[in-house]
Amino acid sequence: MVGDDFKGWKNGRVVFDAGTGTGKTSFIINQLLPWALERSKKEGRLIKILLLCNRVSLKSQGIRKIIECGVGIDLTQYDSPDALDEMELNASNSRFIRVWTYQKIEYWQQRKPEWVKKWLDSYTYIVCDEAHYFFADADFNHTTELSFQCIERLVPEKVVIYMSATGRLLFDRWDEDGSILPERYYYIPKNYDHISQVYFFYRDAERQDILDHLPADEKAVVFVTKRDTLEEMKKKYGDSASYYCSKHHKDGPIDALEDCINPDGTLRKRILFTTTALYNGVDIKDRALKHLIIEQWDPIEVIQEIGRKRPLDADDTCKLYLRGKGRKELLSLFLSISEKWETGFFYQKGGASWEHCRNRYDADDRIGKASVVKFDHKEQAYHLNQMKWTLYDYQRDVLWSMYACGYRRTLIELIDPYLHRRTQTYLMADLVAYIAEHMGQPMTKKEIRQNVTMLAQLGAKSGRAKSEGATMTAVKEELERYNVQIVKYGERKHQKGEIQYYTFKEL
Fold first, then answer.
1. Which helix (H) or strand (E) holds 13?
2. In DSSP terms, which residues pair with 199 in a beta bridge?
3. In this predicted model, what pLDDT tens digit does every residue of 314-353 receive, in sequence order?
């Protein structure tokens, strides 16, 4: 797609708005790097590339690919800025490419900003892989804007390449304000041909049912929302599954990445439970991976997680299971994010609105290091974290659309509208069989309630004995998802009198 365009790129932004697995990183290593080597020989000066990424796993993957390309570069890593400075800026050292993380830039920018500027100035090409990082990680990483600002300052002086499958929050803004030339904006639509079917499920019991009915020769990756769930799954599955989360979590890691995924990209065990720690930077190339279970709601995270499965050919397909959200949960999420968002809104509005926000009883909680607005003691002024604001503004819009138009519809539209035709509700196999067997058969309400409760694993209402099962209202709501209603069958005489019987009927 790029062809030989890159040989004529002048300073400024270049955007690769392309799905996972479309060859973005391969282009950098297999085309841009050899070109940098050729230019260095012709021009008699060092033409260097800085490849930036958002995860240590992605950094390691990038280094491996560079080694594989056969350039023969010394890729020893340095932790000291002095040592790095000496090595990087020494013209006699033929170091043409380096892989670093954004977090490393943020670390040194807070400690030695003058060194960071000097170091970045030594590169001709700055490549920002997984560029959605700047806003997507801003919720828990309060310094993403530091690396973004460092890089943006270089745009007039360097060729800065931004690459992401989910970077539209940045890309659309640059497109609208004309700061990216059309001929330097490369777009490749996402391709989900390897997704054979999309299911929506709603409860832990349904996730369990999916895994319980996993064929013996098939594997699954399960993306959960919190580390506590990994601990629960470890108690249940033990050594038969793998469990991966960020090593920076306050409770520490569980399994190392290399204990979860083999060097060739295959899964070590039948099931891998993980968090968003694995949502990019890892390519899973395993034909046996037939089930992707995703419990996150943010389309950016969902798209990245789907992208971990790298199909080997047209026959390498899998099923996708997305966890549904009810209106009550969506409203709760919307209000929670709005609380973070509104501080930035009042700050930008200024005047009486901002003054009112500053004088609120909870102002200290709303304005701080982890907030959209923080007080800079060095400058004695308030500062808006633009990346946090961008994230929360986007999430509010998405959640409101989900609340107003339906979760399922909105999420699929934001992933890929063409997936609609492959989407259906997940139904538990044992309950489907029970309904089929008892369609038109007489049953008591008690019998229906107890059996549906057991098979669907519905929780008993508070204050109700577990043996009694869920309420009849809960049972009816569950059956509606299976396109079934409960209707009167008729009365039958019994030694204790007349007993009312009921049966199943298709809606």
1. strand 12-18
2. 321, 424
3. 999 999 999 999 999 999 999 999 999 999 999 999 999 9
Domains of the chain: 5-188 (3.40.50.300), 195-324 (3.40.50.300), 327-404 (no CATH), 429-506 (no CATH)
Residue 502, H or E segment: strand 497-506
Six-digit token string for 421: 């035709």
Helix (H, G, I), strand (E, B) or coil at 2: coil
The per-residue pLDDT for 468 is 64
Place of tokens 């400058």: 379
Considering the entire predicted model, what is its pTM?
Answer: 0.87
Q: Are 94 and 36 in contact (CB under 8 A)?
A: no
For the chain, the helix, strand and coil percentages under 3-state DSSP, each to the nearest 5:
45, 20, 35
C-alpha to C-alpha distance for 258 and 268, rounded to whole angstroms: 9
Q: Which phi and psi angles does 321 have, rounded to 5°?
A: -120, 120
- How far apart, in Å, do the first and last CA atoms of the chain sit? 51
Of 132, 153, 162, the closest CA to residue 391 belongs to 132
Identity (one letter) of the amino acid at 291? H
Question: What angle, rounded to 10 degrees, do the helices at 113-121 and 144-152 form?
Answer: 50
CA 346, CA 316: separation in Å to the nearest integer? 50
What is the rounded CA–CA span in Å between residue 454 and residue 468? 10
Torsion of CA 448, 449, 454, 458, to 10 degrees: 140
Supply 48's token pair: 């260097």
Q: Which residue has the higher pLDDT, 145 or 58?
A: 145
Per-residue pLDDT of 3-18, as tens digits, reads 999 999 999 999 999 9
Q: What is the CA radius of gyration of the chain?
A: 27
DSSP character string of 310-378: --SSTT--EEEEEE---HHHHHHHHHHHHHHHHHHHHHHH-HHHHHHHHTSTTHHHHBSTTSSEEEETT
Question: Tokens in use for 368?
Answer: 């701080």
